[in-house]
Amino acid sequence: DRIGNFTMPNGGVKDTNKRWAYYKFSAGELPDEYFHPTVPVDKWLSAKSKEKGEAVLTYADDRGFENGSLAVLKPVSKDVELERIFGIALYMIGNVLPFVLPGMMVSAIFSTVMRTILTAFLAYVFVLYFITHAIFSPYFRNKYKPEGTKGTPPLVTNDMRSNQYLYTERNIQKYLSAQYVWPETMHRPAMENQNVIFSIIPHGVAPLGITAYPLWSKLYNDKLCRWTAAPVVLKIPLVGLFMKKIGYIPAKTRNIHEALTKREENVGIILDGIAGMFQTHTNEETAYVKRRKGIVKIALRAGVPIVPVYAFGHTSAWTVVVDPFGILEKLSNQFG
Fold first, then answer.
1. What value does the mean pLDDT of the chain take?
2. Residues 6+ apart with CB under 8 A from 23
3. Using one digit for the tens of pLDDT, what is the confidence trace for 156-179?
């Protein structure tokens, strides 16, 4: 068969000796009880979805997967859909609030209209924050907690690996019907003893595809994957602290090199950064990589391979509206 359902050799199901060219992991279909750091990767790779009992990991020969099979949106439950409607809005506002709020407050001193706008804006932010943290957060932390856990688990702990299993990231996987495809050369045990750099394009307005954080720290090897962000982002109140708790490091040569060599961790980087954020075409894909040579130098010095990753859907998930003079992009490059 061209496409099949993967079964682990010790999974109690019929085994296959065929070497497949490509593997596809449907992250959104992984049973909720498996979304925990203590669950071994073997269970992930042999899991079946709750809805139809279909294998979460499937495979294909060198002809690849059937046309259109990687662009299928699966239905999501209403609670997940509602949480993402509020959660994504709060996430986007949280990233820009520290930059726009000072200017709005100064303008409000001199303008009645601006005071009205500021009041309405802050009320909107408060409503988003309250609904997210007072309602959705405890609800999903209880829904996804391991069996036998007493009380509501904390949102974050001192364990960085556990923090990557946030309920928000789980819901993103479901909301986007996230699927991850890799070649046979990356399939376990090929990279189990090798820390790597995952180099991803395009960024899009927000690279939601990377937020299945545990996958990068589990599917290919057991090394913690540290994602990078612009240093200014990690200085944003609350947002920056939260990102550090799940493993983010500044997108600086020194920090990346230390993660790869001193801690022997994986590193993930969105290669096109700000340029990828301002890509306004949804009917074509543009990759900004020719001038991104710094990551190659880091890889050579650290002696680690670069795994190129393309995130289909990052550009089509958003409608991008920018100023025609490119002022916002220039400012972003200046401060990012």
1. 86
2. 6, 57, 58, 59, 181, 182, 183, 184, 187
3. 999 999 999 999 999 999 999 999
Q: How far is CA 128 from CA 80, 88, 122, 190, 260, in A?
A: 15, 10, 10, 44, 38
How does pLDDT run across 126-147, given as a tens digit for each residue? 999 999 999 999 999 999 999 8
Amino acid found at 233: V
240, with CB counted inside 10 A (0-12, 13-18, 19+), is middle
Q: Closest Cα partner for 48 from 81, 6, 92, 109? A: 6
Distances (CA, A) of 211 to 84, 208, 248: 13, 5, 11
Q: 25 phi and psi, to 5 degrees?
A: -110, 115
- Which alpha helices (H) appear in 17-111, and where do they start and end? 41-45, 78-110
Residue 112's pLDDT band, with cuts at 50, 70 and 90, is very high
Q: At what angle do helices 167-175 and 78-110 cross, to 10 degrees?
A: 110
Residue 160 identity: M
SS3 at position 244: helix
pLDDT of residue 60: 93
Strand pairing report for 179-183 and 225-229: unpaired
Angstrom distance (rounded) from CA 35 to CA 27: 10
Lowest model confidence (mean pLDDT) among 20-24, 84-88, 331-335 = 331-335
Nearest one of 162, 241, 182, 170 to 208, comparing CA atoms? 170
For residue 165, the Cα-to-chain-centroid distance in whole angstroms is 11
